[in-house]
Amino acid sequence: PSGLVLEYDAWAIGRGADKVKEFLENNYQKNISLEESIQLALKALVYSVDKIEEGWTARLVTIPVKTRKYTSMSSEELQAMLEPLTRDKKS
Question: What's the whole-model pTM score?
Fold first, then answer.
């Protein structure tokens, strides 16, 4: 059988993926907490966009190693975390 196997600590796909990967390569550290990982992911996301326009949205899900349960962050909680990171990029 054919296939592809990749091992990575941090990765990105989609629009802006190159910028996100660059950011993660420069800022990611092993053994950071889930909360630190979330902050790093949000900073990488904001870093990857040039300007945040009205109607811009994001979603955040986690699968913690300890629980292995899919968790989706509420829009309100995510917006509160993104607000200080996006101030300078809003149109």
Answer: 0.79
Confirm whether 55 is domain-assigned: yes
The reply to whether 40 falls in a domain is yes
- Which residues lie below 8 Å from residue 16, measured CB to CB, with a gap of 6+? 45, 48, 49
Q: How far is CA 21 from CA 6, 15, 28, 41, in A?
A: 15, 11, 10, 10
The continuous run of DSSP H or E covering 40 comes out as: helix 34-48
- Looking at every residue in the chain, the average pLDDT score rounds to 87
On whether residue 84 sits in a domain, the answer given is yes
By three-state DSSP, how is residue 29 classified? coil
Cα gap 69→62, rounded to integer Å? 8
* Chain segment 37-63, per-residue pLDDT in tens: 999 999 999 999 888 787 778 899 999
Looking at the structure of the chain, the number of domains it has is 1
